[in-house]
Design a protein that fits this description.
Blueprint: H1 3-6, H2 9-16, H3 23-30, E1 38-44, E2 47-52, E3 57-60, H4 81-86, E4 112-114, H5 125-134, E5 141-143, H6 145-154, E6 161-163, E7 169-172, E8 175-181, H7 185-188, H8 205-208, E9 210-216, E10 219-223, H9 232-239, E11 244-248, H10 262-272, E12 276-280, H11 293-306, E13 311-312, E14 320-323
Helix pairs in contact: 9-10, 10-11
The structure holds fe (ii) ion (FE2) (2 copies).
């Protein structure tokens, strides 16, 4: 048998995907979180892994699917949220623009699985299956009603699911989670097939989407799901002491208003009173791809006049952030390696070759 004879499409897929293999799983598992800190990793979209100094592991909005993969279907399904929002019909060219950096099937431990809302890129059947198989028998699946309906529909036992609504407070080991209002109007125009919204004032946001405020022993994170800008960010900021705020950022195609703009991100940061604002979500969809450095440009332009007390942090998918050790950093870069250079004699023809 030659190498060529052994090659199949399936062994290419298993060998190449997920692109990072279990590299990041191992990094998360092996990280020892120092007292007075917490660590978090961006796993794509607004998916994050939090790990505290007491080894509490919380996964929120993880998603391991992808977007469009063929052009053979011409139109969106009727009553798709974008179709509802804009009266469009043509298939949305939303291809997944960043790789999947975590292997859901290699999860080893997790204390809670959270979802902000039931859109496909914020809740995941593969991770649900892996948590049921690999983690403890009592790991809760926590989300608004529609997220829970989705988990139960996939086969997650009902007694493992916890429906939450704004005002609820949950305790996961050393972490307190405040369930807060969502301001995700795209979720409000997400309907069942046949559900017409013309003239209807929807009042079911709490069933569809929530935001969360995580109180870790070492600091607080406001996770705003897919929320748009809201004046209520100020109310949240007056109520809670927020260290880090996440916002869903993206370049909205004309006709669409789904993600926050750079202006919205700065207004959100100012209103919440956070110390660090981190844009997320702009990584995933090819048609919403945005450059987060725009937020920093605008920040530089406005920070003195408005006396901003926060700064933006530009992260990368798969990146780790440790609060408060990284709190003065502005930008992430992947580990560059070669730390052990010249510990051995290089094998080169002569010293001045490079
Ligand atoms: Fe969404
Ligand atoms: Fe989303």
């Amino acid at each position: 048998m030659t190498k060529i004879d052994e090659i199949t499409r399936e062994n290419w897929i298993l060998g190449a995907f997920p692109e990072w293999g279990t590299w990041l799983n191992e990094e998360i598992d092996n990280t020892v979180v120092e007292p007075g800190t917490f660590a978090m990793w961006w796993l794509g979209v607004v998916g994050c892994w939090f790990k505290t100094e007491n080894d509490t592991n919380i996964a929120i909005d993880l998603w391991f699917g992808n977007g469009k993969r063929t052009q053979q279907v011409a139109n969106m399904k009727p009553y798709h949220q974008m179709r509802n929002m804009m009266g469009v019909k043509k298939l949305q060219p939303n291809l997944r623009a960043y790789p999947i950096v975590y292997d859901p099937f290699a999860v080893t431990k997790c204390d809670a699985v959270l979802s902000t809302h039931y859109h496909n890129d914020h809740i995941d059947p593969f991770f649900a299956k892996a948590v049921l198989d690999n983690c403890g028998p009592d790991v809760p699946f926590i989300g608004p009603l529609e997220s829970v309906k989705k988990w139960i529909g996939w086969g997650v036992p009902e007694d493992r699911c916890q429906i939450v609504k704004p005002g609820d407070v949950i305790k996961i080991k050393d972490t307190t989670i405040h369930v807060l209002d969502s301001y995700d109007r795209t979720c409000l125009v997400t309907t069942e097939v046949g559900e017409d919204l013309d003239g209807v004032c929807p009042t079911n946001m709490d069933d569809k989407a929530v935001n969360y405020l995580f109180e870790f022993p070492a600091g607080n994170v406001y996770h705003s799901g897919d929320s748009h800008y809201s004046i209520r960010y100020r109310e949240i900021g007056k109520k809670f002491d927020i260290d880090i705020a996440f916002g869903s950022y993206g370049e909205n195609p004309p006709g669409c208003q789904d993600k926050m703009s750079s202006v919205d991100m700065l207004r959100m940061a100012e209103a919440t009173g956070c110390k660090v604002v981190i844009p997320l979500h702009y990584d995933v969809w090819s048609n919403f791809k945005a450059d987060p450095k725009e937020i920093r440009y605008l920040y530089e332009y406005k920070k003195d006049a408005l006396q901003y007390k926060f700064h933006p942090y530009i992260w990368d998918v798969g990146g780790k952030y440790v609060w408060p050790l990284d709190k003065d950093k502005n930008e992430f870069h992947y580990r560059r390696g070669f730390e052990d250079c010249f510990e051995e004699e290089p094998n080169v023809p002569f010293k001045s070759i490079l």
